[in-house]
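Can't paste images in this forum, so I'm doing it all in text. The chain is below; anyone willing to post the predicted structure tokens underneath?
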Amino acid sequence: MNKKGCLIPAVIVGIILVLIVWIVGSYNGLVSLEEKTNTAYSQIEVQLQRRSDLIPNLVNTVKGYASQEEEVFTAVSQARSKLAGANTVDEVSEANGELSSALNRLLAISESYPELKSNENFLSLQDELAGTENRIGVARKDYNEAVQAYNVKIRRFPGNILAGIMGFERKDTFEAEESAKEVPEVSFE
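Text version of the structure:
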């Protein structure tokens, strides 16, 4: 066999090897990014569960001082249940917004009850809740960054071809609640 006859199969094998290496590398990169988004989302869920676990203690503490505020307690309970039943990122985001709103109303009750504001258990729970809210914010930021990197990877050419063939789909970011977009009203009465 002449040199030219050996060169063509070698070039074809080389091209096939390069394609295989690219496909394997791209696929593994997509899997890694997808798992990073899944892990980041689970961190949001962990922090939401932590907050959800704090709420009954907070509600019971407030009930001890403000038992007539049943409407607020019901709103907190319903929002907490809705969050527990949420399955998609959008549902979790919406339920989280409702729970945050209900918690804000619950915490506002303390303004009407000075003895509640000075209760050590209430203050401790309020601090834990504030810390958890900060953790939720960080987890949401981390999740959105992971989703952004993943979504960019599956949309860029030529990776988008492989992503489409392998079934990698776009993921939703965790959006701010509508209430967070409104300017809060501050009153010094």
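The chain has one domain: 34-172. Residues 180-189 have pLDDT under 50 and may be disordered.
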